[in-house]
Design goal:
Among the domains are: 46-141, Alpha-Beta Plaits (2-Layer Sandwich), CATH 3.30.70.3270; 170-224, no CATH class. It has five helices and five strands. It has helices at 2-17, 63-67, 108-112, 131-134, 138-141; strands at 46-48, 73-79, 91-99, 118-120, 135-136. Strands 2-3-5 form a three-stranded antiparallel beta sheet. It has a two-stranded antiparallel sheet with strand order 1-4. Bound molecules: iron/sulfur cluster (2 copies). The site of one iron/sulfur cluster has 14 residues, from helix 2.
Length: 224
C-alpha cells in the first residue's frame, strides 16, 4: 500500500511538470529584453541634482544624514571656494556617500532636503560584487552635464529610464495649506528647468470631484 501511495505522489509531481507555471521569469535582469514598467513614484537609487546653471544643489547641511533611519548617508560640508563656488551660498557637500547595503529606500532623505538636492531615480536593477561599489560616492551620485544620472557599470539602465529621475515629487503639496495649491516650489534642474505640477497638484485640474480649491479663493483656510 505504501509503495502505491508513493507512486501516486510521483504521478502528481510529474503531472505538474507540464502544467503552466504559476510564477514567471523576473523581468529586469541583465539578459531580459524588457522590464516591467515602474510605478511613477517608485524609489530607486539616488541622484544628487544640479541647478540649471550647473551648480550643485547640495549645501552640505547633513539633514538627510540626520533623518536617515538606516544611518547610511555620510555628508561633510565645506565652505565654497570664493573664486569657484560649487553651490550657491556659503557651503557645499564636500563628501557625500550613500551605503546601498543599508538603504531601505524610504525617501526620508529626499523629504528632509531643503534644496531638493537628493532625489531618487527608478533604478533598482543594480548589484555589486564588492563593498566599495555598494557605497556610492558623490562623484557617482551627482547628475551629469545633461542633468541625467550617471550609468555605472553594474547598473542596468534602459533607454528612457534615466529621464525624470525626480518625477515622484514635484512639490506643490495640495494636502498641505490650501494657499500653496498649484504653486510650484520645485527649483529648476539642469536639463529639465522647472517642472510643472503633477495632475492633482494644481487648481487647474477640474476633472476630479475633489479637485483642490484655487489658491486665490482659498485664503479662508477651508478644505473640501
Ligand atoms: S532612502 Fe531612507 S534609508 Fe535610504 S538613504 Fe534615504 S533616508 Fe536613508
Ligand atoms: S542632500 Fe540636501 S539634506 Fe543632504 S546635505 Fe545636501 S542639501 Fe543637505
Amino acid at each position: 500500500m505504501g509503495i502505491f501511495s508513493g507512486l501516486d505522489g510521483f504521478k502528481m509531481t510529474f503531472g505538474k511538470l507540464f502544467d503552466d507555471r504559476v510564477t514567471g521569469e523576473y523581468k529586469g535582469g541583465r539578459n531580459d529584453d524588457e522590464k516591467r514598467d515602474k510605478p511613477v513614484r517608485m524609489h530607486g537609487r539616488h541622484v544628487l541634482n544640479r541647478y540649471e546653471d550647473g551648480m550643485e544643489k547640495c549645501i552640505g547641511c547633513e539633514l538627510c544624514a540626520g533623518v536617515c533611519p538606516a544611518n547610511c548617508i555620510y555628508v561633510r560640508g565645506a565652505d565654497n571656494p570664493i573664486d569657484d563656488p560649487v553651490s550657491p551660498g556659503e557651503r557645499y557637500g564636500f563628501v557625500y556617500e550613500i551605503n546601498y547595503l543599508r538603504c531601505i529606500h524610504c525617501d526620508l532623505c529626499v523629504e528632509a532636503c531643503p534644496t531638493q538636492a537628493i532625489t531618487e531615480s527608478k533604478m533598482f536593477e543594480f548589484s555589486f560584487e564588492n563593498r566599495q561599489d555598494a557605497i556610492y560616492t558623490k562623484a557617482e551620485l551627482v547628475v551629469d552635464d545633461d542633468g541625467l544620472p550617471q550609468h555605472l557599470p553594474w547598473e542596468d539602465w534602459r533607454p528612457g529610464e534615466d529621464e525624470h529621475t525626480s518625477a515622484w515629487m514635484r512639490a506643490t503639496s495640495p494636502s498641505g495649506a490650501a494657499e500653496y495649491v498649484g504653486k510650484v516650489a520645485w527649483s529648476g534642474e539642469l536639463g529639465y528647468g522647472v517642472r510643472a505640477p503633477e495632475r492633482g497638484q494644481t487648481a487647474d485640474v477640474a476633472d476630479t470631484a475633489d479637485a483642490p480649491a484655487a489658491a486665490d479663493d482659498a485664503h479662508g483656510g477651508g478644505h473640501h
